[in-house]
Design a protein that fits this description.
The chain is of the alpha/beta class and about 325 residues long. The chain contains ten helices and twelve strands. It is globular, with a radius of gyration of 21 Å.
Amino acid sequence: MKLILNTPGLYLCKRGECFQIQSENEKREIAATKVDQIMITTHAALTTDAIELALEYNIDIIFLKSTGQPMGRVWHSKLGSISTIRRKQLFLQDSPFGLQLVKEWILEKMDNQIRLLKKLEVNRRDDEKRAIIKDALEKIEKQKTNIMSINHNETINNVRNMLLGYEGTAGRVYFETLGKLIPEKYAFEVRSRNPAKDPFNCMLNYSYGILYSSVEKACIIAGLDPYIGIMHTDNYNKKALVYDMVEMYRGYMDEIVFRLFSTKKIQDDFFDNVEDGFYLNKEGKQLLISEYNKELEVKMNYRGRRIEFANIIQYDCHQIANRILKENMLC
């Protein structure tokens, strides 16, 4: 589970092999064995004993901005990239294997978009809405075909703009369609980031922030350097590989957020309207994180395995690290 500190003034300390959370009115304890991540989204105090307990149990501590974007983290010093993987990562931009990986990740993203739209189509009796979904599916499939047709001997540096164009076109179609399918009160036309221009994108932005931190952690554990990307360039202090790989999992967060809106669990007071944009407040974050934690325990068929959603990202990162190690590249 993810232990979330999002109430100002909370105090986190160690009691035996448990984390104790103290507020003005109560104390509660959670066994360290049940925690895989501690996320701090507000002003809170941590003791060094609590930090040591987290490190002993391989629990990383993440500090998040109000938008959900990771700002910093503490993890065990034993976690780090294997030098061979890191060296090979540096050459993926100039290797056809790097292009192969990126194509797989983008196609996985589009498959998840298609999967969600098809699921929504089943639940729609309105012929007009079903026609909108059908049209969107055809357009996304077309972009998939475009990506698959790119010469496999090319390198990412030669086709980056082409890939971004196909991916962007599919994304615009996808979000325009979602904007027409959610309850009319929350309808939107385009994807908006920070600040979000509507409640749906606001909650989606925060969910992606959670996802970034999960992908970064999985990369580090698998020995991948999160700063050395393929599609995204490795600019200073930019977790380029995280931005590359997160694309595969956005669809899962899209479905969680869409479900919250379509099942009428969203309330207007979950959002603060600041500087012409929307920000998710404490109550909204609690709802989203609670739903996300439930999803982590769901078992699904994934790449021929029966696996919990919580383990999918780590499984993929280990597989990718092993493929990079085995790939014969000129370094």
